[in-house]
Amino acid sequence: MNRVLFFLIILILSATACGPANVQLSRADLRLVDSLFLASRNEWSEKLKDSCTVVKEQNFDFWVDSIKEERLKEIKIMLNRHEEVQ
Question: What digits encode the pLDDT tens for the residues 43-79?
């Protein structure tokens, strides 16, 4: 499937590079492109979800800790300002 998609992309790029800028695709061509896109999207969608889940699981604690650290700094600054005013 990936080879077919790659071949079509190369074919379209080579056809558009040598031809006029206003290429009109037929309905059959548009259906073919749509079906190839949907097939590849479904194939890659699960892989991307898995990758995103792994990245989230690896980095979630770090993200939470850094947000917490920033908020604590802001709170300390506010407390210092409040103490200076009194």
Answer: 788 788 888 888 888 999 999 999 999 999 999 999 9
The total of structural domains in the chain comes to: 1
Asked if residue 50 belongs to a domain, the reply is yes
Q: What is the phi/psi pair of residue 21, to 5°?
A: -75, -25
Is 39 part of any domain?
yes
Q: Which of 83, 4, 82, 85 lies closest to 43, judged by CA? A: 4
Residue at 9 is within a domain: no
Q: Which domain holds residue 71?
A: 25-85
End-to-end CA distance of the chain: 71
Looking at residue 5, its pLDDT comes to 74
Q: Is 59 helix (H, G, I), strand (E, B) or coil?
A: helix
Handedness of CA 44, 47, 49, 51 (dihedral sign): negative
